[in-house]
């Protein structure tokens, strides 16, 4: 998602408003930093959580998997956010040494919302598709 940018000779400013730039109310903000360049994070999916992920400094690669196919995105621009809907598996890797990754989330932290096992995630995707009308 393209985020607004207000720049002048003092530098740049980007802001995000719930329900205007992103389709959910922000209940939580967290950020990843000091991540070793050979570290991988994520490796989970969420049942209900929506998120916007922004590399506010440096860059990171995100691999998104909806249970059928994978797509890889490089985030390296603080004016661009990647929106993640529920039921997608995400892997974060190739953090640059200076990366700061900001995450805006629709719910407070709740471990019960996580899929940490990829096979269970795949089974839940198949199950939710069976329930579609
Ligand atoms: P984890 O979800 O494994 O991080 P990542 O997805 O970046 O690899 O979370 C790491 C630890 O931090 C884990 O013990 C849960 C805890 N945590 C919180 O307490 N609150 C939070 O908002 C988040 C995102 C994680």
Automatic annotation (TrEMBL):
A Pfam family this chain is assigned to: FdtA
UniProt cross-references to CDD domains, sorted A to Z: cupin_QdtA-like (cd20292)
Cited InterPro entries: QdtA_cupin_dom (IPR008894), RmlC-like_jellyroll (IPR014710), RmlC_Cupin_sf (IPR011051)
Organism superkingdom: Bacteria
Domain (Sugar 3,4-ketoisomerase QdtA cupin) ranges: 2-125
Protein name: WxcM-like domain-containing protein
Highest classification ranks of the organism: Bacteria, Pseudomonadati, Pseudomonadota, Alphaproteobacteria, Sphingomonadales
